[in-house]
Amino acid sequence: MRLASALSAIAFAAVAMPAMAQSPNPSLTVQGIGEVRAAPDLAVIATGVTTQAETAREALDLNSAAMEELIAVLTEAGIAERDIQTSNFSVNPLYTYSDQPDAEGYRQPPRIAGYEVANSVTITVRDLDLLGGVLDQAVTVGANTIGGISFSLDDSTAALEAARRQAVQDAIAKAETYADAAGVELGAITSIREGQDAAPPRPMVRAEAYAMDAASSVPIQGGELTYSVTTTITWALEAAE
Questions:
Q1: Any idea which of 57-61, 145-149, 165-169, 198-202 has the lowest mean pLDDT?
Q2: Is residue 215 over pLDDT 60?
Q3: Domains located in the chain, CATH noted
Q4: How many CA atoms lie within 13 A of 203 on its CB side?
Q5: Number of C-beta neighbours around residue 80 at 10 A
Q6: Hey, how many other C-beta atoms are within 10 angstroms of the C-beta on 90?
Q7: Which has the higher per-residue pLDDT, 169 or 22?
Q8: Which residues partner with 94 through β-bridges?
Q9: pLDDT at 1 over 60
Q10: Alpha carbons 44 and 226: distance in angstroms, whole number
Q11: How far apart, in Å, are the Cα atoms of 171 and each of 157, 178, 182?
């Protein structure tokens, strides 16, 4: 038993010692995170009109008239034509179902009772002070579907650049702490990598709402967006003097 234990210890040492020798150039890799919050300066709204009638022609005529009025109101509110884009258009039959069997006792097939036409547009609002009024006027003239509102920055370059700088500073601070605790010194940076994707902006609610001109405007809060970037940096390590 003692001989076997001794042989096992020698075998372990033979495996472990070369593994330590395989790192002639020690390094330290640290990940830094940077986050920057910014108030949005534009909003994207999905809205439209859904109409129903006995015939497809009637439903389409009703829908077209309502959409023309909606687009006219949006244009008058200050929305540029380039910021109004059709995103969906559909014509679908409306069915009625009966639980009553036919004369032979079979379940009756569904019947077409009418038609539904849906027309949706995506609107980009570049002046957030207009947002509440735009929503209010859109509903007033017949918009009966609103798919949601998303906020963003027209140009996120500055926010992402600031987040990258913060991520690098965070990584440097962590690396200095690790090096000091381990009794080594940071050498040259050998690698800097950014995460596969910068995190998409995350909405964060702010305390105040955007001021709206019209008293009847829909109350809207733009909140803040958080842009996050992750950076991984590798340093060569040197022995402390």
A1: 198-202
A2: no
A3: 24-38+156-239 (3.30.110.170), 42-98+110-152 (3.30.70.2970)
A4: 13
A5: 10
A6: 10
A7: 169
A8: 114
A9: no
A10: 17
A11: 21, 11, 16
Please provide the DSSP assignment of 66-123 as one string: HHHHHHHHHHHTT--GGGEEEEEEEEEEEEE---SB-TTSPBPPPEEEEEEEEEEEEE
What amino acid is encoded at 35 in this protein? E
What's the angle, vertex CA 206, arms to CA 205 and CA 208, rounded to 5? 135
Is the Cβ–Cβ distance between 153 and 197 less than 8 Å?
no
Residue 8, amino acid: S
Q: Which two tokens stand for residue 22?
A: 């395989």
The phi, psi pair for 52, rounded to 5°, reads -135, 145
> DSSP state, 129?
G
Angle (CA) 137-140-143 rounded to 5° is 90
- Amino acid (one-letter) located at 81: E
Q: Read off the pLDDT of each residue in 118-135 and give the average, rounded to a whole number.
A: 91
